[in-house]
Design goal:
three-stranded antiparallel sheet; 107 residues; mainly beta; 6 strands
């Protein structure tokens, strides 16, 4: 999620078995928090903006959510852009599959 100029934004990412709550603040990449990625405990990921606070959240079932991190919202929510993606860094011995499912829908 970022502003139209990409100067400010927030993201929730998995890279090299680590789950990151991160963002871009005034053009500078910042990691707010990180934990070892657990594919069962972190099966569902979401960014929630509520009352001026952004919550980086995880859930094992899409019903009960836990904050990985929370902080005052660094972007103007009314003018944000959403980007979804996946991939792998470096050379891969075989193709990978990235699946984005249950977008805005929980089980």
């Amino acid at each position: 999620v970022s502003d139209p100029d990409d100067d400010n934004g927030v993201g929730i990412d998995v890279f090299d078995d680590t789950l990151y709550a991160d963002g871009v603040i005034s053009g500078t990449w910042v990691t707010f928090d990180q934990v070892p990625f657990d594919p069962l405990a972190h099966r569902f990921l979401r960014l929630l903006e509520e009352g001026g606070t952004t919550h980086w959240q995880t859930s094992p079932d899409g019903q009960i959510w836990s904050d990985l991190h929370a902080r005052p919202t660094p972007v103007e929510v009314a003018t944000t852009r959403i980007a979804l993606g996946g991939g792998a860094a470096g050379l891969q011995a075989s193709p990978i599959t990235v699946e984005l499912d249950n977008l805005n829908i929980t089980p």
